C-alpha cells in the first residue's frame, strides 16, 4: 500500500501509471483450478501448458489435389509420362509403395504414399485415366504438409495463462484432447452506493437517479468471465456499508463498489475499508474520475470506484480490468493498443491530469481519423456508448487543435 491504514488522504495526486503499477505489483493469480471439457472452455484461462500428445498433422500429407510422385523420376527438361498406380483420399490412404515410373492420384489431406516425395498439382497435368503427363519444372518435396509442422509431439502447444479463444479451442481439439485444466472463475462482488439511487422498475422521486453503474459493471465483469455476486444498492449509511463490505469480503475474491469515495459528507467507503482492512486511497491525476480506493478486506481485494458513470468505466478499463486479468491468471494486456491518429476536432483543456476523452475512430479515404464522441461530462454515459475509443491526452497536453495527431486506445481488438 502506498498509504498506511487510517492515514489521511494524500494531498498530492498519483499518476495513472504509478497507480496501475502499485495495484499490479500486489496481485498474483488465484490458486483454484478445475478441469473443463473443451466444449466449455471458451474464454477460460489455461492453468497448465497443453502438451501435444501427437504430431499435428499426424502424417505427411498432400496440400493439393494432384499426383504423388518420386521427384527423381521426373525429367529435368521436357514432360514425363507416369503410370497411375492408384488413388489416395483423405482418410483412405493408398497402402502400397510407389514404384519407379508410377504416380498416385492424390487428394488434399491424403497421406503421402511410401516412396513418394512430391505432389504435382492436378491443374498442370494431363491424364487419360491410366497415365499422367507431368510438365518440367517441378520441385522435390513440393506441396507436402509435413507431419508435426503445426505441432510436434511433446511440444508445448499452448502456455498456461492463455485465454481460450476460438483458435485455441480448435487447436486443443486438433490434438484430440477432451479436457483442459483452467483457473476457476474469479468471484467478484459488486454494489452501488448512494442514497439518491433508485432501482429500475421504481418511479423516480425528486432528486433521484437510476442506478446505472451496477449494470455497466455487470456487463464489463461478465465479459471478463467473472462469477458475479450482484449486491444491489447500498445506502450511504456506515452500518449498511459495513455489512455489505463484510459479506462481500467473505464471499468473493474481489469487491468492486461505485460512489462514496470522494470527500463529501456521505462518502464512507474509504473510512470503512481502512477500518475493516487496509486501504490506499488515491487522488489520481486522471480525468474523469479523480478519487479511487484500492485495498483489501480479509482475503478480498477492493476497488472503490468513483460514482460518476463515465468515471466508473474509465477506472474500470485503466485499472480494474488488468487487475482482474492478473488475478484470473491471464495477466494484464501486454501493451494496451495505442494508435497515433489525426484528430478532426479541437479539444480545449488545461495541463495536469491524464484525460480519457471519448472518441470515435473511423477509417476515411485519407486514413484513420478520430473525432470527439459527444458531450464529455463525467456523468454523460452517452459519450461512452457513441465512442469506440479513448483519446488519451498526456498530463502535459495543453489542448488539441483540429488536425493534431493524438493517441487513441480502441475499445475492442479483433481477437
Ligand atoms: P459520488 O462519488 O457517490 O459522490 O457520486 C458522484 C456522482 O455519480 C453523483 O452525481 C451520483 O449521483 C452519481 N452516481 C453515483 N452512483 C451512481 C450509480 N450507481 N448510477 C448512476 N449514477 C451514480
Ligand atoms: Mg454517493
Describe this structure in words.
The protein has four domains: about 15-30 and about 185-330, 3-Layer(aba) Sandwich (Molybdenum Cofactor Biosythetic Enzyme, Chain A); about 35-55 and about 150-185, Molybdopterin biosynthesis moea protein, domain 2; about 60-140, Molybdopterin biosynthesis moea protein, domain 3 (Molybdopterin biosynthesis moeA protein, domain 3, Beta Complex); about 340-410, Beta Barrel (Beta-clip). It has seven helices and 26 strands. The protein has helices at about 15-25, 165-175, 215-225, 240-250, 270-275, 310-325, 380-385; strands at about 35, 50, 60, 65-70, 80-90, 100-105, 120, 125, 130-135, 145, 155-160, 180-185, 185-195, 195-200, 210, 225-235, 255-260, 280-285, 285, 290-295, 300-305, 340-345, 355-365, 365-370, 390-395, 405-410. α3 packs parallel to α6 and α4 (about 240-250) crosses α5 (about 270-275). The radius of gyration is 30 Å and the shape is elongated. The structure holds adenosine monophosphate and magnesium ion. Adenosine monophosphate (AMP) binds near residues 264 and 307.
Please tag this protein with its features:
alpha/beta, 4 domains, binds magnesium ion, Molybdopterin biosynthesis moea protein, domain 2, 415 residues, binds adenosine monophosphate, 6-stranded mixed β-sheet, Molybdopterin biosynthesis moeA protein, domain 3, Molybdenum Cofactor Biosythetic Enzyme, Chain A
Amino acid at each position: 500500500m502506498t498509504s498506511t491504514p487510517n492515514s489521511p488522504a494524500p494531498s498530492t495526486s498519483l499518476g495513472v501509471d504509478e497507480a496501475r503499477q502499485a495495484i499490479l505489483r500486489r496481485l498474483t493469480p488465484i490458486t483454484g483450478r478445475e478441469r473443463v471439457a473443451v466444449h466449455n472452455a471458451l474464454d477460460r484461462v489455461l492453468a497448465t501448458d497443453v502438451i501435444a500428445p501427437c504430431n499435428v498433422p499426424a502424417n505427411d500429407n498432400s496440400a493439393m489435389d494432384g499426383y504423388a510422385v518420386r521427384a527423381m523420376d521426373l525429367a529435368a527438361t521436357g514432360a514425363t509420362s507416369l503410370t497411375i498406380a492408384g488413388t489416395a483420399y483423405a482418410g483412405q490412404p493408398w497402402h502400397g509403395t510407389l514404384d519407379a515410373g508410377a504416380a498416385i492420384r492424390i487428394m488434399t489431406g491424403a497421406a503421402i504414399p511410401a516412396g513418394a516425395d512430391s505432389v504435382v498439382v492436378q491443374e498442370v497435368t494431363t491424364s487419360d485415366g491410366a497415365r499422367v503427363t507431368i510438365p518440367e519444372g517441378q520441385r522435390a518435396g513440393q506441396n507436402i504438409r509435413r507431419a508435426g509442422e503445426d505441432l510436434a509431439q511433446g511440444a508445448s502447444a499452448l502456455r498456461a495463462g492463455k485465454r481460450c479463444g476460438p483458435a485455441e479451442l480448435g487447436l486443443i481439439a486438433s490434438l484430440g484432447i477432451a479436457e483442459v485444466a483452467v483457473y476457476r472463475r474469479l468471484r467478484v462482488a459488486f454494489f452501488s452506493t448512494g442514497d439518491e439511487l433508485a432501482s429500475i422498475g421504481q418511479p423516480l422521486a425528486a432528486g433521484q437517479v437510476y442506478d446505472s453503474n451496477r449494470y455497466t459493471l455487470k456487463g464489463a465483469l461478465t465479459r471478463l468471465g467473472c462469477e458475479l455476486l450482484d449486491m444491489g444498492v447500498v445506502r450511504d449509511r456506515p452500518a449498511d456499508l459495513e455489512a455489505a463490505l463484510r459479506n462481500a469480503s467473505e464471499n468473493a475474491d474481489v469487491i468492486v463498489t461505485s460512489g462514496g469515495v470522494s470527500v463529501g459528507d456521505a462518502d464512507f467507503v474509504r473510512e470503512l475499508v481502512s477500518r475493516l482492512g487496509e486501504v490506499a486511497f488515491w487522488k489520481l491525476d486522471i480525468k474523469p474520475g479523480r478519487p479511487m480506493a484500492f485495498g483489501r478486506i480479509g482475503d478480498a481485494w477492493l476497488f472503490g470506484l468513483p460514482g460518476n458513470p463515465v468515471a466508473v468505466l474509465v477506472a474500470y478499463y485503466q485499472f480494474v480490468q488488468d487487475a482482474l486479468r492478473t488475478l484470473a491468471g491471464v495477466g494484464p494486456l501486454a501493451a494496451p493498443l495505442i494508435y497515433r491518429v489525426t484528430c478532426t476536432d479541437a479539444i480545449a483543456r488545461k495541463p495536469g491530469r491524464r484525460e480519457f476523452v471519448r472518441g470515435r475512430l473511423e477509417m476515411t479515404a485519407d486514413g484513420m481519423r478520430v473525432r470527439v464522441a459527444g458531450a464529455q461530462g463525467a456523468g454523460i454515459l452517452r459519450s461512452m456508448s457513441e465512442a469506440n475509443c479513448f483519446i488519451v491526452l498526456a498530463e502535459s497536453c495543453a489542448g488539441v487543435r483540429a488536425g493534431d495527431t493524438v493517441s487513441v486506445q480502441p475499445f475492442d481488438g479483433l481477437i
